[in-house]
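Section 5: illustrative case.
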């Protein structure tokens, strides 16, 4: 076998190897991700983003309200937290939801409490079978399925987190960079 033929065969072998590796990588990237896995990834990023917003607000401004009729910054945090705990316990756990009364916490306590609440819901959802996400549940707005409850969990956090960004802007505090997927 000539040197030229060996070079051609080596070149063809390398091309075939690269094509196989590329094909395997593309197959891994194109594997469908489960709804639950996608939601849990987004939920973790949502947690990090809300914690960044809570961190950005100075502790002495946690009582700030844009208007008298609106919730304070920390009341918003409490509302977000209680809603996620209620939805998580009611629709993704056997544990009963116990409504907590509002109490003023330090900034550090809020950060820790919010992180724990996000993690609790994450564990509840992780323990939920993907096959049960299509099950219908009773909700005050009418029958919904568990997938819709997952969407509501995220949507509610997003809604009130957006309000908190306005609070930061009103205090001339630059909000943290958006954390998406």
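Designed sequence:
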């Amino acid at each position: 076998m000539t040197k030229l033929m060996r070079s051609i065969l080596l070149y063809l072998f390398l091309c075939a190897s690269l094509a196989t590796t590329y094909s395997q990588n593309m197959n891994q990237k194109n594997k469908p991700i489960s709804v639950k896995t996608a939601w849990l990834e987004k939920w973790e990023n949502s947690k990090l983003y809300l914690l960044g917003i809570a961190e950005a607000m100075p502790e002495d401004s946690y009582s700030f309200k844009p208007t008298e009729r609106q919730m304070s910054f920390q009341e918003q945090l409490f509302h977000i937290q209680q809603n996620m705990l209620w939805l998580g316990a009611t629709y993704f756990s056997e544990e009963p939801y116990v409504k907590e009364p509002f109490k003023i916490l330090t900034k550090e306590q809020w950060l820790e409490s919010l992180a724990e609440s996000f993690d609790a819901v994450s564990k509840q959802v992780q323990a939920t079978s993907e096959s049960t996400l299509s099950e219908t549940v009773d909700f005050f707005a009418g029958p919904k399925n568990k997938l819709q409850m997952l969407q509501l969990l995220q949507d509610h956090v997003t809604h009130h987190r957006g309000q908190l960004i306005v609070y930061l802007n009103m205090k001339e505090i630059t909000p943290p960079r958006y954390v998406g997927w």
